[in-house]
Amino acid sequence: MTAATKLLDEMCHLTAQSLTALDTSEHFKLLKLLGEGSYGKVMLAVHRKRGTPMALKFFPRESTSLFSFLREYNLSLSFCTHPSLTRALGIAYCTPSHYIFAQQASLFGDLYDIIIPEVGMEEDRCQRVVSQLCGALSHLHTLGFVHRDVKPENVFLCDSDCRWVKLGDFGMVKASGTRVPEVWYSSPYCTPEAEIARGNEDSWSSINDQQDGSEDEEKKKKRVLVSVEPTTDSWALGILTYAMLTGSHPWAETASDCGSYLKYQEWFDQVNILGDELDVWTEPQSENQQKTRDLNKTGQKDQTPAAPQFSCFTPLACSFFQSLLNPRPQNRGRPEDALSFLGGDWVLEKERMRLEKERKRSSGKGAIKCMKEMEGRGER
Ligand SMILES: Nc1ncnc2c1ncn2[C@@H]1O[C@H](COP(=O)(O)OP(=O)(O)OP(=O)(O)O)[C@@H](O)[C@H]1O
């Protein structure tokens, strides 16, 4: 446990004793709905006396524990001091039906709204988002926290050009190193290491449903406990970046029987030096492996053709993806490592021109399939 995670626990215990009951309409004027998630709704409001604009996040009391509410509030208030993290404003209260806290309001929607399906968004804007998210995640990681829910709906926009974005929704945040039950869910955002929990979905729902400790022994045995690691956020950042650049996902689900993920893995193994070093004393298992070794010997490693879903990217972008989307978590890059890939071109010229044309033609709300699979399954 880091000093920050200890302090967060302490703050939750202290604020639990002082949470006041307020009448929302007496103190705030509600202007409009900013968004809704699986845990509640977020409204744009102004403080009646001071005129301060803010986002009020409402959590229904019947489905939210006081401690999880206070954890999200205190984390946002005291540790989200980076400009690209959504900070709470020091107002938390309850009504008979809800727990509520106030946060800085981002007035330009979220990333989900601007990613056009099959087209994505401009590369410049994408690189600006990546750069800010690398800083935000690195800040959280340094304090000993892992976000665990990086996705388009949780990146809020403070302007239409993505010059200032803020990562929000800290309901899934955990201290790095905490032991939690592994969850596999059908989504590209799910990490490959989570596959050990595949097939255990039944036991996972019982953990959430049976908070009284009556979870049956058989199911308890099936739970795979793993350590929360910052590399989970690296993976999600890689998938999010792919979604921003293409308006699609590189594979349907991160699973050993998903064809497009397998093609990626094959490409990864071909160009990955470490994999090659590990294999150096063994006979090549396939024609591809032999080819890769030959290419490496002649210094032509970079010419290995990319997996089909990555063929529209430059070698620089391919290296970025291979760092964040490393199937081995222990070798996966950190968000701060990703900063070194920014600045150069990511999308090949021909593809960039095609996307620009498509973008001009398309308009409207993005429809990237979000991680609805997590609804009701995430630990709060
Ligand atoms: N501070 C904010 N400023 C502007 N919009 C916000 C803010 N907070 C949340 N929103 C909007 O509300 C939506 C839901 O908020 P949030 O993700 O925090 O809720 P949640 O119930 O925790 O969601 P999830 O289902 O992802 O767990 C966001 O996708 C975003 O569009």
TrEMBL record:
Belongs to the protein kinase superfamily. ATP binds at residue 57. Residues 28-347 form the Protein kinase domain. Residues 202-211 have a biased composition (Polar residues). Residues 290-300, 370-380 have a biased composition (Basic and acidic residues). Keywords: ATP-binding, Kinase, Nucleotide-binding, Serine/threonine-protein kinase, Transferase. PROSITE patterns: PROTEIN_KINASE_ATP, PROTEIN_KINASE_DOM, PROTEIN_KINASE_ST. The gene is LOC106519549. GO terms for molecular function: ATP binding; protein serine/threonine kinase activity. InterPro entries: Kinase-like_dom_sf, Prot_kinase_dom, Protein_kinase_ATP_BS, Ser/Thr_kinase_AS. This is Serine/threonine-protein kinase SBK1.
